[in-house]
Design a protein that fits this description.
Elements (H helix, E strand, L loop, with lengths): L16 H4 L9 E4 L17 E5 L3 H12 L2 H9 L6 H13 L3 H10 L24 H14 L6 E4 L13 E5 L5 E3 L5 E5 L13 H15 L2 E10 L2 E2 L1 H8 L3 E4 L8 E3 L2 E9 L2
Parallel strand pairs: 1-2, 1-4, 2-3, 4-7
Antiparallel strand pairs: 5-6, 7-8, 7-11, 9-11, 10-11
Helix pairs in contact: 2-5, 3-5, 4-5
This protein binds S-adenosylmethionine.
Length: 281
């Protein structure tokens, strides 16, 4: 049984863990979750590595993880400000308040009460998701209890960072890096990198135009120094191809297609999605 995130995070790898985790390189002592999001991945390998770094560019998101590791304070605070069913005005006020004076507890409360639990930021990095007529419930209590009792056992092993991924140092050949970036930019017909991302997500605003190329170079540096990487993502979606994943596969890196719950591919109307993991080991 895997430990679920406390935030139903957009793009969470929770449902794919049984296919992803057996493929990690456990010969390395250190682990880096470069794009930790809701934390489904790092929280499920805490017993497998000596030291772990969990990083994400969204500071308040990392703030939630950090606070949960330390104490119950953020739990009490979030519960006390989280809107419930039928409280759209409270949600509106909280969103305004978060956008002028952000804190981890406010972000968590917003995520729990947002449409489909999905966070969304606009191009100016302001939270703009709508009210989902939901809030903190019994299932949140259960998830929080399981999550905190797990991570707190490993308190001394975990370090949190909130940096653009390429500022995480590649310091040795002893690290297993897991990269689960936002949707990549598409490959143009001539093979060059396109401007558009392969699909939409609420954190796409944080993914800059040259980040795919930076990530490609970053993964190559990991390979050159002798550390290990796994990158996951959508290779094909709706007749579009991810430039970076396609390039890594064409260079001969080992890859596996992930099987969704029901089928090899997920279909929304006539849209076909293929998700892969690519490894340098
Ligand atoms: C696909 S999600 C990761 C989901 C995560 N693996 C999980 O299971 O919850 C991608 C994450 O990348 C973060 N991100 C976007 N741009 C980034 C950057 N330049 N550096 C680091 N993190 C970034 C987003 O905030 C988002 O949380």
């Amino acid at each position: 049984m895997y430990i679920d995130s406390v935030m139903n995070y957009t793009g969470s790898k929770f449902k794919l863990l049984e296919q992803i985790l057996p493929e990690f390189d456990y010969t390395k002592p250190y682990f880096v979750d470069l794009f930790c999001g809701g934390g489904s991945v790092y929280t499920n390998v805490l017993d497998k590595y000596e030291k772990l770094i969990a990083n994400d560019i969204i500071k308040d998101l990392v703030g939630i993880h950090k606070s949960l590791l330390e104490s119950d304070r953020i739990i009490e605070e979030t519960k006390s400000i989280c809107p419930s069913k039928g409280q759209p005005e409270l949600f509106g006020k909280l969103r305004e308040d978060y956008n002028s004076n952000p804190t981890p507890a406010k972000l968590w409360a917003l995520m729990l009460s947002s449409t489909n639990n999905m966070m969304r930021f606009n191009q100016k990095f302001k939270y703009n998701q709508t009210f989902g007529d939901r809030g903190w419930n019994q299932s949140t209590d259960k998830k929080v209890e399981t999550f905190t009792s797990n991570i707190r056992q490993y308190k001394d092993k975990i370090r949190f960072k909130s940096l653009p991924f390429d500022q995480i140092e590649i310091s040795s050949d002893k690290i297993m890096f897991y990269a689960d970036p936002p949707y990549g930019r598409i490959k143009n017909e001539d093979g060059s990198i396109g401007k558009k991302q392969i699909s939409e997500a609420g954190y796409n605003a944080f993914w800059k135009e040259d980040d795919d190329i930076k990530l490609y170079n970053y993964l190559k540096s990991i390979d050159e120094i002798g550390s290990s990487f796994m990158v996951s993502g959508v290779l094909y979606h709706d007749n579009k191809t991810s430039w970076m994943l396609d390039k890594l596969i064409s260079e001969g890196y080992r890859y596996k297609e992930l099987q969704f719950d029901y089928n090899k591919v997920s279909r929304k109307g006539d849209k076909v999605t293929t998700e892969v993991i690519i490894m340098n080991y």
